[in-house]
Automatic annotation (TrEMBL):
Its EC number is 4.3.1.12. PANTHER family: KETIMINE REDUCTASE MU-CRYSTALLIN. The gene is ocd. Pfam families: OCD_Mu_crystall. InterPro entries: NAD(P)-bd_dom_sf (IPR036291), ODC_Mu_crystall (IPR003462), ODC_N (IPR023401). Keywords: Lyase. The keyword Lyase applies. This is Ornithine cyclodeaminase. One of its GO terms (molecular function) is ornithine cyclodeaminase activity. It is an enzyme of class 4 (lyase). GO terms for cellular component: cytoplasm.
Amino acid sequence: MGHVEGVVEPHSLVKLLEDLLRGENDEAPRSSISLGGSWLGAMVAGGMGYFSAKIVGVYPENPGRGLPLVRGVLLLFRGSDGEKLLDIPAEEPTGWRTAAASALALSKLGFRGGGVLGVIGAGVQARYHLRVLLQIFRFDEILVASRRMETGERLAREFGGRRVGRRDLLRRSDVVVAATNSREPVVEGDFLRSGAYVVSVGAPRPVRELDDSVKRRASCILVDSAIACEESDDACGVEAVTLRDYVRGAASCRWGDVYVYKSVGTPLFDLAIAIHIYERLSGRGKVSTSSSE
């Protein structure tokens, strides 16, 4: 924490994300490789007068070693001359942009706030989702489920919620956010209440957060990337529509009795957070051009 702390404003970031998805901005096909249980990807996008590039890895064994699950670097260049404008660690921006995209997806799916927010997981993505969603929406109650009791209780206290069992959370929550590195489904469709919204932001394969019952009940899912099924079993075996097409009105879903959004990451989201951070920093006259600053 610290490189962009206090810089990001969730409401304007969500608006920028929507503007980028609506516009004729471009992103290159993501290049990625796996090594053992780890994953490394390179993501490049352009729009609004900028180019962005993010090289990021997901390392499932890191949390047990006291290291971040996600590590990488985020770069922003001026489109006209290639001047490097931003060079910062990718962990915080990835957290912010993923949670902001989830907020946008929930809004487009028709969620207007209220009820119970349940978060499964107590790591970086869980914390950023709580930070963003609690600013974008109003909730009546916050529930946290985590395999590690102390971590889950600490996160719940931090946001005025309480730690509960995972299935109890599923039964009671109007919005369920799964932010884990579990290889076994943590969201079981048989326990979801009718009309529930599910946001799954776990890492790509071999992470698996949704069981087949969730997908059957949803009938269709919203995904952040057209290659979601290639990278996650959570997005396979069911009709999928990209958030970009959904925002533009170019595609629709035949929803069942639950709503699902699956995120695996897309370069336009990285472009959005890079532009957002740069423009807010430059407005204060504090542009950072090196991750060592």
